Amino acid sequence: MATQILTTTYDPAEFRTMLADCVSETLRLEIAKILSNQTAEKTIFTRQETAELLNISLPTLNEYTKSGTIAAYRLGSNVRYRIEDINKALTLIKTR
């Protein structure tokens, strides 16, 4: 393996600034690539996903659905929940 020595006329502060700019630009481009590859935020959930999201059991979710606490939708034989309805079912507890 050959060793190569480079000399420059940059002062250390200027070199640090140039290096930081290069690293920042590379990171910005990599983050943009990662974010562009992600799918849109999920808005429809299965029963299992909804129960996990709310940290409740499936029977409890079923009771909430039957009582109208949370709205559910049928797609063929499958039950689905919309994120808007999940968020609407969560109510703020008023404290003094």
Q: What does this protein look like?
A:
53% of the residues lie in helices and 11% in strands. By secondary structure, the protein is mainly alpha-helical. It has a domain at 44-89. The longest helix has 26 residues, at 12-37. The radius of gyration is 26 Å and the shape is elongated.
What is this structure's SSE topology?
Blueprint: H1 12-37, E1 44-46, H2 47-54, H3 58-67, E2 73-75, E3 78-82, H4 83-89
Antiparallel strand pairs: 1-3, 2-3
Provide a short characterization of the protein structure.
The chain has 96 residues and is mostly helical.
Q: Measured on Cα atoms, how large is the radius of gyration?
A: 26 Å
* Mean pLDDT value: 87
Strand order of the largest sheet: 1-3-2
Q: What series of H and E elements makes up the topology?
A: HEHHEEH
Essential attributes:
96 residues, three-stranded antiparallel beta sheet, 3 strands, 11% strand, elongated
